Amino acid sequence: MLVESCPQQTLQHVTAARQRGLLTGCVPTMGALHQGHVSLMQRARSECGYVTATIFVNPTQFGPQEDFSKYPRTLQSDLQLCEQAGVDLVFTPQTDQMYAADAETVVQVGRLTTLLEGAHRPGHFDGVTTVVAKLLMITQPQKAYFGQKDYQQQLVVRRMVRDLNIPVEIVTCPIIRESDGLAMSSRNRYLTAEERQTATALSGALRLAERLCSQSGAVPSVVEQQMQQMLLQTPGLVLQYAVLADPETLQPLPERVPSGTSCVALIAARVGTTRLIDNLLLVFG
Ligand code: AMP
């Protein structure tokens, strides 16, 4: 496995792989890797001849009050996980290798980035789309792997790729969870034992929504209210949003929906100082 911090060298390695006729895949991450990330790498390994993982804690997608400086950085164990997952190349640049001091280009997707995460984290998606566009240029993947865990992110990346005609297929992979339902996240390691227990309320509320939605005649706003009520009653948890939305546009659902309608339930909440998100795709009964 090669480990490379230089964008030009990385591009050369990947270009050589493409010239050898290998299908190239990329798994962008911020490191502090866990089994969720590993599942993306394994999927890439099973589908591609040359797999690049990127590890870069991208400063431009963090707000001024957010956890950029304390974000976990565990490069040595990350590299072990990449190696075990069969990654060919890890691109792990320093910030000044990614951004020139006078960089002034931003990739911005429109309305889709103003809702939900975008509303709670102003500027976040501009940072994400700009860095993902750069990572795609540098690692030249034919397939790029993202987690459903960041549901809105994968939608925004898909929109960017379509709108800019970037020649890559975006593959969205299922959420990997702990045995008690908590979605794996690099941020889970911030949680105290008590907070860790509280955090299971997110997946609990999603399962409640799933149960309610599956009943015939279920009403979206009622399901939403039940989900919100459960979270609002959880001590130690501060709810930011818990909604049902159209799985493509993230717009609210109409008052009545026919049986068989798909939607996504999305939750964001703070537990202590840690901000957590989770989601589940649902079908109305
Ligand atoms: P991050 O390092 O948090 O930026 O995540 C890198 C990629 O891994 C993103 O596409 C995430 O959606 C994905 N990811 C994070 N957690 C999980 C998880 N629990 N299951 C599946 N994918 C995940």
- Order of helix and strand elements from N to C terminus: EHEHEHEHHHEHEHHHEEE
Instruction: Report the helical percentage.
Output: 25-40%
The third-level CATH topology of the largest domain is Rossmann fold
Strand order of the largest sheet: 1-4-3-2-5-6
| Structure summary, number of beta strands | 9
Which architecture of the largest domain does the CATH hierarchy give at level 2?
A: 3-Layer(aba) Sandwich
Radius of gyration equals 19 Å
Our count of helices gives 10
Describe this structure in words.
The chain is of the alpha/beta class and about 280 residues long. It folds into two domains: about 1-175, Rossmann fold, CATH 3.40.50.620; about 185-285, 2-Layer Sandwich (Pantoate--beta-alanine Ligase, Chain: A,domain 2), CATH 3.30.1300. It has ten helices and nine strands. The chain has helices at about 5-20, 35-45, 75-85, 95-100, 115-120, 125-140, 150-165, 195-200, 200-215, 220-230, and strands at about 1-5, 25-30, 50-55, 90, 145, 170-175, 235-245, 260-270, 275-285. Helix 6 (about 125-140) crosses helix 7 (about 150-165) and helix 9 (about 200-215) packs antiparallel against helix 10 (about 220-230). The chain is globular. The protein starts with a strand and ends with a strand. Adenosine monophosphate binds near residues 39 and 173.
